[in-house]
Structures are given as structure tokens and as C-alpha cells.
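Intended use. Records like the one below are meant for learning the mapping from a protein sequence to its folded structure. Do not use them to infer anything beyond what is encoded.
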Amino acid sequence: MTGMFISFLGTLPMGTLNISAMQISLSDGIRPALYFSGGAVLVEVLYVRLTLVAMNWFRKHKKLLLKLEWFTLLIILALAISSFYAAYHPSVKASPILANNVHRFWLGVGMSAVNPLQIPFWFGWSTVLAGRNLLRPKEGLYILYIAGIGLGTIIGHCVFIFGGRLLAEQMSARQDMVHLVIGIVFLVTAIIQLFRMVTHKDAISTMENGSR
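Structure written out for the chain above:
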């Protein structure tokens, strides 16, 4: 329950994955969006498992995380630009970045895999929970903790997937506005991430401090 609660709240702020899931639900439908979320959650729970056993390795490979952060920033900017393109070209029904033939499950896997912010986020929370004796080094407890995290993320994504479709139905005549709003969200997300990287509040600095 603790893992699910933290994961659900952590998924609610607008970000690359949940907005992408919403956009896929608008262009492809509910099932592809759920496939996308399933792929993203799979990578997230694997990252959580890794943070529980291999934090020393991640600390020794900070340059790799830094490269992934810049790569993630480029992806967010590309998603913003493609959403603006879709907004000003009515014939385009989806963001060109997401309008590809890659199965949505594997697209979710790929986009989640290059998001290193999950590593310090869960390392920080796992450290706090362990310090309060809520998370003990037992395999059974780890499995329950990770399962709760996966469930919380799925529920959080569903808020965007179904909420996005409800919003789109209310604005069915203004799909350009929907794409414009999504593009603005991606652009703001990119600016925030760049600010965090420039001011040393990114994943690398977070990991060194042991919290988010």
C-alpha cells in the first residue's frame, strides 16, 4: 500500500510518460495506451529492483545517467515540437513522434528506459522507508513493495488515459487546442528539467544527496 500510494502520487504531476499515454489514448485508443503504460511500468519496477540492490553501481556510472538525462530532454523537446506541429496541421491526428509503427508496449519500454529520474526518486523513497523500518530487506516484502509501485503507476496513468479521452470528447471540435495544450505541457516539462540540470538538482545531484 505504501509503494502504491507513493507511486500514484508521483505519477500525477504531468510528465513525459503520462502525457504520452494520454496522447496515445486520443490517437490510437484505450488499449494501445494501456499497452504503453504496461511497458513503462515494467521498466519502472525493474529500476526499483535495481535500486534496492545495485546503488553502488549507479553511483560509479554517473556519466551514463547524465547522458540519459540529456537524451530524455531531447525526447521531451521533440514531443513538444511534434505536438505543436499537429496543432497547426489539422490533417495530422497524432504527434508525429508517437505516430509510428512501433508496438505501444515496446514504445513504453523504450521511453521509460531512458528516463533516469526514476532511479534517484525510488532510491530516495526506499531509503526513507527503510530508515523508518517500513521496508525491510526481505524478498517477500520487496515483491509486495514493487507490485504496489507498479499498480500505483498504472492507476496514475489511467487518470490521464481516461481523463484525457473525456476531455477530448468535450473538445471534439477543437483537436488543435488539445494538441496545443499537450505541446505546452511538454515544453514546460523540458524547461523544468533543463533548469534542474543547470542548477544541479538533476538525477545525479539527487542521487549523491540520497533523496529526490
